[in-house]
């Protein structure tokens, strides 16, 4: 049952201090434990916390943005994503061009386009509309207290693990070699070409009747209270994500990703329940075997995922909006199960989700990032038509 909301003197939901203190305590304890073993991992957690706050306060979801664009011609989320991609690719370019930062190597999210990748992105597109969010959206809504999304997250992890069992077969299907525009024509020209292409996409959608129907920046005067408690305008959220993704690249050598953490959580759970990884070709590889044997706190993706969960919880408590409800309904529950499985399975085939494949891929000027979003949008067009079957509202 949803909890009552207390209103403060300014007429806003009061800060939920017990939740805030609890989330902050967990974050502090985890940061201290990580720092003792690896200061870099403590930094990854800090970036994850920032990502969680930004995602929650800006309500920066990919799933709803695509749904609104398709059904209402609302380009607000699309414009914010285009700006985010342009800024991120501009920030990525000097790091990827140098190939090294802080004494360690740096590499972009670059993957081949093939049958597996295209199929996975299409399946993911359907699944995110049924599940209710993409991978990052699942994390920040769970962190904000959405109990239906807990179901989506559990089955997302299960689907990701399931995908690894079939992955060798899928990866044997035809595929192009990895292609990135930056190394081919230069990083500066590549960023410019992508910026022009993104601008053309927004212009074309506008010509077809699309409009930004939500505020993209602050209405009226900026205030510290709004920055602390939200909501944030979409552009601020997009800029924050671009900067934090670049920070992740600089700190770890790899861009932000989400779904490998889910895969690891799913595989570890399956092993506890009796699954033998030695029978899987994927989990018999040396690097996956090591990852499965190690703690989840030794995986940068897993740690950043935990940071997003906690950061979103902190943001929700500051906004006074932690109001979990057990009233889900059978059909929406079924949709969460199916959506989670489809997203998990699809993400493993497609080298990631909206973040690892699309956001980080395009920021790295990789062809697969562009191919991913095309196929995911095709899947989305089917997913939005399936939502009413499960009593899920559109948009």
The Cα radius of gyration reads: 20 Å
Average pLDDT level: 93
Unreliable spans: none
Order of helices and strands: HHHHEEHHHHHHHHHHHHH
Largest sheet entry:
2 strands, antiparallel
**How many discrete structural domains?**
1
Helix proportion of residues, in percent? Answer: 55-70%
What is the spatial order of strands in the main beta sheet?
1-2
Give the helix tally.
17
Portion of residues in beta strands equals under 5%
DSSP summary, beta strand count = 2
**SS-based class:** mainly alpha
Q: Which of globular, elongated, flat, extended, rod-shaped describes the shape?
A: globular
Distance between the termini: 25 Å
Please tag this protein with its features.
two-stranded antiparallel sheet; 68% helix
What order do the helices and strands come in, and which of them pair?
Layout: H1 17-37, H2 39-58, H3 62-72, H4 76-98, E1 100-101, E2 104-105, H5 115-131, H6 135-143, H7 147-171, H8 181-185, H9 187-207, H10 224-229, H11 234-252, H12 259-272, H13 286-293, H14 300-319, H15 330-349, H16 354-363, H17 367-386
Antiparallel strand pairs: 1-2
Helix pairs in contact: 1-2, 1-14, 2-6, 2-11, 2-14, 3-4, 3-17, 4-9, 4-11, 4-16, 5-15, 5-17, 6-7, 6-14, 7-12, 7-15, 12-14, 16-17
């Amino acid at each position: 049952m949803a909890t009552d909301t207390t209103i403060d003197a300014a007429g806003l939901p009061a800060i939920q201090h017990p939740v805030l203190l609890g989330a902050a305590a967990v974050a502090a304890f985890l940061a201290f434990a990580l720092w003792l073993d690896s200061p870099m991992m403590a930094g990854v957690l800090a970036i994850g916390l920032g990502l969680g706050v930004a995602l929650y306060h800006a309500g920066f979801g990919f799933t709803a943005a695509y749904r609104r664009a398709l059904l209402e011609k609302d380009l607000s989320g699309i414009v914010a994503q285009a700006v985010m991609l342009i800024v991120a690719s501009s920030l990525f370019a000097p790091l990827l061009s140098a190939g090294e930062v802080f004494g360690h190597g740096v590499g972009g999210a670059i993957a081949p386009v093939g049958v597996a990748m295209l199929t996975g992105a299409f399946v993911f597109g359907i699944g995110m509309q049924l599940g209710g969010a993409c991978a990052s959206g699942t994390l920040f809504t769970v962190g904000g207290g959405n109990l239906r999304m807990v179901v989506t997250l559990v089955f997302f992890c299960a689907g990701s693990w399931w995908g690894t069992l079939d992955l060798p077969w899928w990866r044997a299907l035809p595929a192009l070699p990895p292609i990135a525009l930056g190394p081919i024509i230069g990083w500066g020209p590549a960023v410019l070409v992508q910026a022009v292409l993104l601008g053309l996409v927004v212009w074309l959608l506008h010509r077809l009747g699309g409009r930004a129907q939500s505020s993209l920046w602050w209405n009226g005067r900026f205030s510290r209270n709004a920055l602390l408690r939200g909501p944030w305008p979409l552009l601020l959220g997009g800029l924050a994500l671009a900067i934090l993704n670049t920070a992740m690249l600089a700190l770890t050598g790899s861009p932000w990703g989400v779904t490998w953490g889910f895969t690891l959580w799913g595989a570890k759970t399956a092993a506890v329940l009796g699954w033998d990884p030695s029978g899987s070709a994927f989990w018999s590889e040396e690097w996956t075997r090591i990852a499965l044997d190690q703690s989840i706190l030794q995986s940068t993706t897993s740690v950043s995922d935990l940071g997003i969960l906690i950061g979103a919880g902190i943001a929700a408590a500051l906004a006074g909006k932690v109001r979990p409800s057990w009233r889900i309904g059978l059909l929406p529950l079924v949709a969460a199960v199916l959506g989670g499985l489809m997203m998990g399975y699809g993400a493993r085939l497609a080298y990631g989700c909206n973040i690892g494949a699309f956001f980080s891929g395009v920021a790295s000027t990789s062809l697969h990032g562009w191919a991913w979003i095309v196929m995911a949008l095709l899947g989305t067009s089917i997913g939005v038509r399936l939502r009413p079957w499960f009593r899920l509202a559109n948009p």
